C-alpha cells in the first residue's frame, strides 16, 4: 500500500498551484482545445479521468450533452466546481470526487479524455488508469471502446552533450527543457531514436523499455540523454494530419560520460514501469560503446566472404571461356 509521500511522488496529488500554472501553457491549452473540438461531436457523452481544474471538461461541454469529470484530489474538486460554475455550459459537467483508477461512468461514453501525462510516461498514472478503464469498461458495457484523447504517445531518446555548469557551479542533475524553445546549453550528438509507439485504444505493455544502438552524428562528450514524449492528441482524417503536444523534455545525466566521435555506435538500454519515479529510468540505464573489435571482425569476415565469392566467379568465368 502506498504511503502519502509515494502518492505525491507518483503524481496522485499534483498541487493545485501546479494545475493553475498548466492553464498558462499555451501549447497545451490550444492543442487540447483543438483536439477535443475535433473529436467530441454534438450531443456526445464524455468522461474525463483526472479532471484537474476542469478546463478540458469545459472544452468538451461546448458540444457534448453530458460530461463526467473525475478528480481524486478534494482541493481540485472544489476548484473545478467553482471555475466551471462561472463558465458557459458548465452546468453540463458533473464533477465527481473519485479515483480515476477505479471509476466507471453510469452509462457508455463516446470520448475519454485522460491527461495524466509526464515525459517518459513517468510519475503520473496515464498507462495504468487507461489500461484499467478499458478492461472494466468492456466488462460493464461490452464495447465498443470510446475514442481517447490523447490517442497515442510516441517516445524517443536522444544522445546529447549537456552543459551542467551553472555560474561555475557544476551540478549534473536531471533537467527539464521547453520543447518549443532553443537550448544553447545542449549539443545534439545524434538523431532522436523512437523506442515506443503507444496507441491507447490498443492493448499495451505498461513497461517502457529499449535495448538498441544510436550512431553518433557528431564528435563530443556524451554525458546525457534527452527523453522526448510527443502526444498525438487527435488525428484529423480529413486533412491526414495530427494535433500534437510535447511534454517537457527531460535531460538525464550519465554517471560515466563517454568521449565519442562521429560514426561511433552507442548501446543504450533501460526499462521502467510506466508511472514510476524519475529515477526509475536512471537506475536501469546502461550506456556503452558497442564492441568496436566485434565490428571490425564482422567487417573483415564480410570482406573475406565477398573476396571468396569473387574468386569463385572468376574461376567459373575462366572455365566457361
Description of the structure:
With 321 residues, the chain is of the alpha+beta class. It folds into two domains: 4-115, 3-Layer(aba) Sandwich (Rossmann fold), CATH 3.40.50; 152-290, Hnrnp arginine n-methyltransferase1, CATH 2.70.160.11. Helices cover 30% and strands 34% of the residues. It has eight helices and 17 strands. The chain has helices at 4-9, 16-22, 26-39, 55-61, 74-84, 126-141, 279-284, 292-320, and strands spanning 45-49, 66-71, 93-97, 111-114, 147-149, 152-162, 165-166, 169-170, 175-177, 186-188, 193-199, 207-215, 220-236, 241-246, 249-260, 265-273, 286-289.
Mean of all residue-level pLDDT scores: 90
What is the overall number of helices? 8
What's the name of the CATH homologous superfamily of the largest domain?
A: Hnrnp arginine n-methyltransferase1
Q: Rg, please?
A: 25 Å
- β-strand number: 17
Distance between the amino and carboxyl termini: 82 Å
Element-by-element helix/strand order? HHHEHEHEEHEEEEEEEEEEEEHEH
Q: Could you say what the CATH architecture of the largest domain is?
A: Distorted Sandwich
Strand residues, percent: 25-35%
Class from helix and strand fractions: alpha+beta
Main pleated sheet: 7 strands, antiparallel
- The CATH first-level class of the largest domain comes to Mainly Beta
Instruction: Classify the fold: give the CATH topology of the largest domain.
Output: Hnrnp arginine n-methyltransferase1
